[in-house]
Amino acid sequence: MQSFDQTLPILITGGSGYLASWIVKYLVEAGYYVRTTVRSLKDERKIGHLRRIAAAGPGRLEFYEADLMRHGDFNTPMRGCEIVIHTASPFLLGKINNPQQQLIDPALEGTKNVLYSASEIKSVRRVVYTSSAVAIYAEAREIMDQPKGTFTEQNWNLISDLQYDPYAYSKTLAEKEAWVIAQSQKQWDLVTINPTFLLGPTLSGRTDNVSISTIQQLMNGELRQGAPQLYFGVADVRDAAQAHLLAAFTPEASGRYLISAQTMSILEMAEIMRDHFGEAFKLPKKPISNWLLYLIGPWLGFNHRFLRGNLGYVPQFDASRSIEELGLSYRPVEETIVDTVEGLAE
Ligand code: NAP
């Protein structure tokens, strides 16, 4: 892959999203000609912050309406672009009434629609695709089977299904489909970004993102009686956004890039919050006992199978490709958590 023409437009799908908004902001601030798709141009709550980013410049930002489920919606915004960054995909956890309709169809059909458009629009040369660490692993206890004690880009989620973590299933199916489509043609290449759990400030002010709601649960005192002994990889949303830019502009970038700054427990997050904000929030001071969690887990949104697969296991992630090949630097998780809380408190 050769270097790109930096004067051509760059398309980011789902610009209203928590992660995509940062990608749009960084590109506009760097002076690029940016296009983004949103579901509705009338929803100011979702795109008001993008209009302000556009007004601040110096780059140019154009909006297009597109739905993942509508075939051909992405052709017009993609015309003339060499680089496409596909982030749009539903991110829902907890109780989901119709996982096929709410998660699998938009993730999978959206992937097909965007990538078929990429093949139709002859200017496209690279697609940066937002996958997830949940396409790499399903349960923290799988770490026991990893020869080097870490998850890497070699791993795939082989466990999730329509009933058991359908969000992870949607990301796994969709990323696999992306690789199949990419390998069926030679016009553009595919680079995937697989972030662990993202935290950090939100540009839109919206708090309906899953990432944000976890910190909100801590701030609201919902876990004050004790934190579940759950550990996950964490990365800053701003670093994940930079990873997309690096993947777009590094000609040699290829394959999957796992993005993770550090593995943390919910209790460790609460401790960071207490160190910085004192007693401002009713934070947990101890882990909740496992037997109690099994009792009340379903009420908190954790079913027994999930608890068996995750409780007490500490997953580790090898993000060295992102550092060595993309040149990504990670900010400390303390900074990420403090910035998230300060943003929400505002
Ligand atoms: P988000 O704020 O909920 O953004 C999701 C985006 O997808 C929104 O722009 C949403 O549009 C769009 N979208 C959903 N369904 C759509 C449809 N049918 N047609 C068109 N657009 C649709 O979530 P996020 O955290 O930024 O996630 C962005 C990407 O990062 C996703 O692919 C997610 O799987 C991935 N990811 C997120 C995390 C994390 O911890 N946040 C970690 C790893 C990977 P609306 O604004 O109109 O709803």
TrEMBL record:
Q: Where is the NAD-dependent epimerase/dehydratase domain?
A: 10-253
* A molecular function (GO) term: oxidoreductase activity, acting on the CH-OH group of donors, NAD or NADP as acceptor
Source domain of life is Bacteria
Pfam families in the cross-refs: Epimerase
The UniProt transmembrane annotation reads none
User: What are the entry keywords?
Assistant: Oxidoreductase
The yes or no answer to whether the keyword ATP-binding is present is no
Q: Which InterPro entries match?
A: Epimerase_deHydtase, NAD(P)-bd_dom_sf, NAD(P)_dehydrat-like
Family the UniProt entry places it in? Belongs to the NAD(P)-dependent epimerase/dehydratase family. Dihydroflavonol-4-reductase subfamily.
What is the protein named?
NAD-dependent epimerase/dehydratase
| Organism the protein comes from | Haliscomenobacter hydrossis (strain ATCC 27775 / DSM 1100 / LMG 10767 / O)
